[in-house]
């Protein structure tokens, strides 16, 4: 058995969210400089991320006064979730609701229950926590790891915190997880590789903290600056326009920079997954 297959975790340490582009990967804002990483927005003050996977649709076949078979069919609803936080973040709310914050630098405003309800954009959201290696037969037993849930094609609805005597106001984000035909790198799921062709979310276990950076190429730039400095033993997954590129032939990493042998084409979507 390999490491990171059996783990036990606690809490919630880090949550980020980004808009989802038509290619199924992170949408990079148009004002992001070439070579600069975009890693979405951090949802600060995260307390809990819950996920409810619906039960299969069970249909009982009845005849001769008895049940003689039960069909187990795909569920009739999508997975849902809830993110609870103790901090109110206007930029995150604006992103999730498709609206804008406004006002002066010392008087910021955001709308609630607007006419944009029901028109929320699709997002990619991931939340991480620490776990420990729980397989007693491994030499790494008891060592710390990181577990991450990635919602690949979700919609989130913010709910404002309550104002209550002697109570910390918690804000909640109600999440619906829709199917995606691609993973967080924009790489298509296949029966051969994944055992399925659609998924709503994935679970990732890594040795270090999980990070996902997105870039857009311009046809000449070869070196791109990551948002974090990877660990020395970090494993990298790199995809350009949904096609995985391997280190030995396409790119190298030094410090917090990734350099490609050939410059990604103009408009190419570059996704880098790594640990830091």
Based on the model shown, name its key terms.
3 helices, globular, single chain, 276 residues, Pnp Oxidase, Chain A, eight-stranded antiparallel β-sheet, four-stranded antiparallel β-sheet, mainly beta
Task: Describe the fold and architecture.
By secondary structure, this protein is mainly beta. The protein has helices at residues 90-97, 191-194, 247-250, and strands at 7-19, 41-42, 46-52, 57-63, 66-73, 80-85, 102-104, 107-109, 123-133, 144-159, 171-177, 201-206, 210-216, 223-225, 237-240, 243-245, 251-254, 257-260, 269-275. A hairpin with a 2-residue loop joins strand 7 (102-104) and strand 8 (107-109). The two termini are 25 Å apart. The mean pLDDT is 94.
- Helical content stands at under 10%
**Element-level helix/strand string:** EEEEEEHEEEEEHEEEEEHEEE
Give the averaged pLDDT, no decimals.
Answer: 94
Low-confidence stretches: none
> What is the CATH third-level topology name of the domain at 7-56 and 70-207?
Pnp Oxidase, Chain A
According to CATH, what is the class of the domain at 7-56 and 70-207? Mainly Beta
Structural class label: mainly beta
DSSP helical segment count:
3
